[in-house]
Amino acid sequence: MQPDGYSKTLLQVTGLTAGYGRIQVLWGVDLCVHEHESIVLLGANGAGKTTLLKAIMGLIEAWGGQVDFGGVNITRLRTDHRVRRGIVYMSEASGFVGLTVEENILIGAQFLPRSQIRGRADELYAVFPALAERRRALVSSLSGGQRKMVGIAKALAGNPRLIVMDEPSAGLSPLFVKEVVRVLTQFRAKDLALLIAEQNVKFLELADRVYTLDNGRIGFFGTVSEIHKNDALRRAYFGLK
Amino acid sequence: MLLYTLLAGLLFGLYFSLIGLGLNLVFGVMRIVNLAHGDFLMLGAFLAFWLFTLFAVNPISAIPIVFALFAVVGLPLYYLLVPRLLKARDPEMLSFILFFGLSQVIEAITTIAFGTSERSIPGVQLGIVIATVKGLFVGHKVDNGPIEIFGQTFPAAWVASGVVSGLAVLFVYLYLYRTRLGYLTRAVMVNREEAIATGINVHRVSAFAFGIGLGLAAVAGVFAPFMLGSITPAMGVEVTVTSFTVIVIGSLGNPLGTVLGGLVYGISYMFMQSYYSSWANLLPYLLLIAILLVRPSGLLGRQVRRA
Question: pTM of the full predicted structure?
Answer without folding.
Answer: 0.88
